[in-house]
Design goal:
The protein is an alpha/beta fold. Helix content is 39%, strand content 18%. It is built from 18 helices and 14 strands.
Amino acid sequence: MASNTSIIIRLELAKTPSSFAAIAEVIGQAGGDIVAVDMIHAGKETTTRDITVNLVGVLAKDITDRLRDVPGVSLINVSDPTFLAHLGGKIEMMPKMPIKTREDLSKVYTPGVAKVCMAIHDNPSSAFSLTIKRNTVAVVTDGTAVLGLGDIGPEAAMPVMEGKAMLFKQLAGVDAFPISLASKDTEELIRTIKLLSPAFGGINLEDISSPRCFEIEERLKRELDIPVFHDDQHGTAVVVLAGLLNALKIVGKPVDGIRVVVTGIGAAGAAILKMLLAAGVRDVIAVDREGALCRGESYPNPMWTWVAERTNPQMKRGALSDVIEGADVFIGVSRKGVLKVEDIQKMGRDPIVFTMANPEPEIEPELAEPHVRVLATGRSDYPNQINNVLCFPGMFRGALDCRATVINEEMKLAAAWAIASAVSDKELNDQYIIPSIFNDKIVPLIRKAVIQAAIETNVARRIPPEFREDN
């Protein structure tokens, strides 16, 4: 499989006028793009250089095999900067104060720590103010649904969980810790997460396969008194709704007057459907491999039954191509090739298409663009990327700051409206319906909206000073 990345090739070159030219020619012929050359060592007869090469649809092996055949060139090493960034892991724990004296030691450890322990024993809620619990989230996976890679196991899932922890910290100042559990048993996972929960102020479930993820989240929400949020479901759904709200402004259609077709009723698809219904969309059709879900039918997946009972009010049946006629919006979280140009041409005026299958979308964006008014994907190389990174940092920042017991539908809807509001009417256009994850307004906007919704729905245990009536 060709990759879109870069490599660093360390070469020893004979000092001849043509040696580097020959290397550049070979790399270019193979399809590589030289972006940097660094001198490592210069001897009397040879030089050692690091050559950074961008690979776009090119295999690194194609380039290195050719370089080995160049006279006067010795291939020393090939490095991938992505692998180098992961050496030893991507996160670490740091103390908030130095321990330099015996007095310092007595404050943070024995004997001083004993009175803090007893204060928490007497009042367990004080753990939020006297421990890391107030600002710490567990990022928990079993490695069964990692990105587009599938069931690759808990160890292989760790780089993703570490990356998530980095985003939590950099974007929202939340201390998140990756936890990969070596079990696929639903009951064992629930029990283990419950046992871990005293150390954390929130639980972010990640990359757990459907339909197990539904029961795990619902049980934990009922049995814990801290927020539990399955980001693959709800983070995606929040950002989809945010993008849709702005797309509807462009085409001049109301939320309650549109027909939406959603394909792929797994974790993300089910959450998107719930979010659309909560936002006031009345006509939603859910489509999976067997076609449109319809109430009264028997489905092996309990979530499909739940969805079927609440969607498809006109009882439409058949494949996607049968039920998409006249639809205003297509949302795909399914697989490559599901959507055809002919399907888009059957849609209503100014069709909105969100094609988010990972790693390849339901239709190639280049094929869809001439036939849609607004197009969004899950990819960063096209406009309007639907990325759940927009949601979870601000969502947990708000939930932690008000010590919410849950993250409810009202908080999710508030987050969606907050994200949508980050794109002003002046900025809004069909190429810009959703803000960048690096927009520094996003986390404060979501935090404020989430806290306000938590207070209004009585799930906040703490009212931050700026929300108090006497402020």
